[in-house]
Write a structure and sequence with these properties.
There is one protein chain. By secondary structure, this protein is α+β, with helices and mostly antiparallel strands. It has a single domain (about 10-175), classed as Beta-clip-like, CATH 2.170.270.10. The protein is about 20% helix and about 30% strand. The protein has 4 helices and 11 strands. The protein has helices at about 15-30, 35-45, 45-50, 95-100; strands at about 10, 55-65, 65-70, 80-85, 90, 105-110, 115-120, 130-135, 140-145, 150-155, 165-170. The strands form 4 sheets. The protein has a 4-stranded mixed sheet, with helices on one face. Strands 4-10-9 form a 3-stranded antiparallel sheet. It is globular, with a radius of gyration of 16 Å. It starts with 10 loop residues before the first strand and ends in a 16-residue tail after the last strand.
């Protein structure tokens, strides 16, 4: 099996990016532009976020076309924290258009002062970066607040059986520059 690099936490590309994101999140909170769910789930799953918890998962090659997928090593109940999408929070600047297409970018819910979207670049993230798309996913993705920043977490929306692939719906924006998959 191919070897991958992994990181074990969410971090910022620069200190200035972190300062800007924290300032903008604080402003959203002050202006009551943050959902109650983001607060509630941030509190509920604070220990898992702190410990970079990840349920017992395996990485398996599905095919050359699809690549890898993430599978449950044991049955998982509904409403269970699976893990956090870890990577580097950075501005989605010109690199997005000059580098090869990065399949591991997830748009962060903050826009920079220059009007650039922040993203989580999980190129060297944890196993969650290999969770594949489905039109009928068994996971929900949620941005939650923890210690003044947003964290993207995955929570089961149904029972998942041992050996079952974990999936999310990537959303329409992901497919803007890619060929949409056949629904499964």
């Amino acid at each position: 099996m191919q070897e991958f690099e992994y990181i074990d936490r969410l971090f910022f590309e620069t200190e200035l990016d972190e300062e800007e994101v924290r300032r903008k999140v604080a402003l959203q909170i002050a202006n009551q532009e943050t959902s109650q769910e983001a607060f509630d789930l941030g509190k509920k799953f604070s220990e898992e976020i702190e410990k970079n918890f990840l349920v017992n998962l395996s990485l398996q090659l599905i095919s050359d076309e699809v690549g890898y997928g993430v599978f449950a090593k044991e049955a998982i109940l509904p409403n269970v924290f699976i893990g956090e999408y870890l990577g580097v929070i950075r501005k989605n600047d010109f690199r997005r258009y000059t580098e090869a297409q990065n399949d591991y970018l997830y748009q962060y819910p903050i826009v920079s002062d220059e009007g650039l979207n922040f993203v989580i670049d999980a190129t060297k993230g944890n196993l969650t970066r290999f969770i594949n798309h489905s039109c009928t996913p068994n996971l929900d993705k949620k941005f939650v607040l923890h210690k003044g920043i947003y964290h993207l977490i995955f929570v089961t929306n149904q029972r998942i059986e041992k050996g079952e692939q974990l999936t999310i719906n990537y959303g329409k924006n992901y497919w803007y520059t890619r060929q949409e998959p056949v629904p499964f």
